[in-house]
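User: Okay, second chain of the day. Same drill as before: sequence in, structure tokens out.
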Amino acid sequence: MMSLIDVERSRECVRRFQGGEKAAFDELVQMYKRQAYGFVCSLIGNAEDAADILQEGFLRAYEGLARFRGEAGFKTWFYRILINLSRDTLRRRVRSRRIFSYSLDEEDDDRAVREVADATLRPDRLAQEEEWQNILRQAVAGLPDRQREAFSLHRLQGLKIEEVARVLGCGPATVKVHIFRAVRHIGRIIGPYMREC
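Assistant: Same drill. Structure tokens below.
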């Protein structure tokens, strides 16, 4: 979640970029790349595709930022770009009948989870944590698009309901319904695993 200072810094970077200072875009990239990467991973379920989408998203933002009017914040506008690119990628996957990959063994997959893992944990606890991450990732990936997007933006990215509504272009009540249904779906999937613990 971004602080008010970060939001103002973001606005200032946009103003500087639109004023001709192209290096200000690098600051925006640094501010958003990690958080946006996690968001796209939660939508796509594949680190390699997420990296490609993020790169394309930043390219489109760079090309379109001169026309950005600031009616919504940069993050809201940028996340809309990422959602559209993610949807396109998922549609191509369906057409080509590709299967989601959830491997944590690849070098770049789920780097954020590995970075926060506590090295003092026992191997059995690490294996259990990895299994939980896979179960949750699969549950989120199995959600319908709007539910997955609303859940990821609110629960994983920490956006407020009103911000999620602006990103998705719908009302706050609709966002709440999507999140409620997503949580219910995820609960049904992880419920049996919870009883085993």
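Confidence is low (pLDDT under 50) at residues 97-121.

User: Thanks, on to the next one.
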